[in-house]
Please model this.
Amino acid sequence: MAQDLVFRPRSGLRRVPGGIAGLTFPAVLVVVALGVDFRAIGDESDIATAVLATVLFVIAAPTAWIFAIDFIEAGRFTIVFASVITSFPLWYLLGAKLAQSVTRWPDWIAAYLKICVLWTITWILLLQVVSFWVG
Model:
């Protein structure tokens, strides 16, 4: 009875392409959020757009809340730059770890989309809870 035994460890996809692919969701959200003109004067719909852009940015760069502390005097560029620099490695590591655990790109995409949807829903619910407490 012949069996095909393989003694090398099972490996998934390559980590670097998976990590780079893991940056797509936050990169798209940051680009959309920064597409709103911060200096424009507008009506109520522009305010709603700015609030939505802020929510998108917080979902993409979850470390942005650190700069809401009163004693940190940071400008917009500093907040955006530091948030992206501190958050994107987390997304890269997520994509890399996910690539290591699956063997096909369709499986990676399906798992990544599930994580992104759960992440977005979690942050929206968290923002709802905080807004309920604040009033």
About this structure: The chain has a mean pLDDT of 82.
